[in-house]
Design a protein that fits this description.
about 25% helix, alpha/beta, single chain, Spore Coat Polysaccharide Biosynthesis Protein SpsA, Chain A, about 30% strand, Jelly Rolls, globular
Length: about 475
Amino acid sequence: MTKKNISITPVILAGGAGTRLWPLSRSEKPKQFLNLLGKYSLLQLTALRIKNYIFADPIIIAGESHRFLVAEQLNMIGFKKCKIILEPFPRNTAAAVAVAAIYLEKKNLHNNMLILSADHYIGNIKNFRKSVNVAINHANQNKLVCLGIKPSYASSEFGYILYEKTRSEGILGRSIKQFIEKPSRKLAQNLISKKALWNSGIFCFNYKTILEEIEAFEPTLFKLTKKALEKSKSDRDFLRLDKNIFKKVKSISIDNSIFENTKKALVVETNFAWSDLGTYNALWKIDKKDKNNNIIKGDIITDNVKNSYILTDKNLVSVSNLNNIILIATKDAVMAANLNKSESIKTITDFLNKQKRIELVEHPIAHRPWGYYENIISEKNYKVKKLFIYPGKKISLQEHKKRSEHWIVISGKARVTRDGKVFYLLKNQSTYIPKLTKHRLENNTRKPLIIIEVQTGSYFGEDDIKRFDDEYGRK
């Protein structure tokens, strides 16, 4: 293929929860938005992977609550023309693929699609792009292609693909026989002996071909996603799918819904390192280790510690005479586990979810389009935050039913709106915002504004915000 006839639209799926990487990954900022492997987030690494002439501007499928994170992180690395489509509810990969394919058809864009997860690791970009070229050749012949990874060890954390033993449909393309989702380690060993491949979750096909198959095997999903897109609304850089229609869409993967049923599915064996980074063990396997086979991040002292993943983002952590452990210390939570059983962390997160623990949802530092805030203290009847408001930014005009707020200026100059009156606060000055009072905080200077906010009341959730005016389109 030449530069002139290679053209493919990447579709990045950025809606995963990443619960097995708690407490680093939380629902407000899951793993795809974290800098787990260096200076870039996993989403940014995924986008940079497709910064090449063979790729068109990507489509991003993301959750409503993460829209500003997506836009900000992509803008930071020069992706300013992405179409960001917002799902009001998570509905797995079949719905996301259908929406992207229908959008491409509607806009009459490049025929071929490359489906990528925003939170995966790929070790050799050159070989990755070679594999994509092979997949494009098959997609041009109306095949549905999944990239398969030759297993480097027997893992129960990944899905597997069994393929027909005789090659078919051209070089490096084999007909798919069966998908096996996260088998036991013993079964994984058996699958590897049968030359099974890891399912990378990376797919390539022509949008017309995949839409034909979705309409054939999932006609209701096809109709609902098409209708949700037809009734979608543009909002700044985002396209919001219709909430009332999309909630009726079945939650099912593209693997189960289409690839296991179609006769057009092929697997292409690849030659690059890959991981879905679903657990700390997977993260440990691919990250850089010290002489004791440890991954150490933060202010940490170790003595006779081996084969471990240890991270702290604030306080000093010391570890002695322990092996094969995970130890994660954040500002508000500490988690320890056996590295070789890191998938069992889901049991902890399920328990936290039942208890409705805020540590499962919120990060100590939460980013917003106007800046960010840090949770300092959170108790039953009060909460303390530090707000950092970027120059020229402001929060929405809002009120609360269940809490009052006290604002103290630590640095900068604040423009305050309270009950229709506007006034300014300087360093060491403060004000009080009673319940059911319309208010707004604004930084119209060229310097950062830092505020200590003390909330008092009976409830402090983000859903106790009634917005009257918001320049970022939030409701």
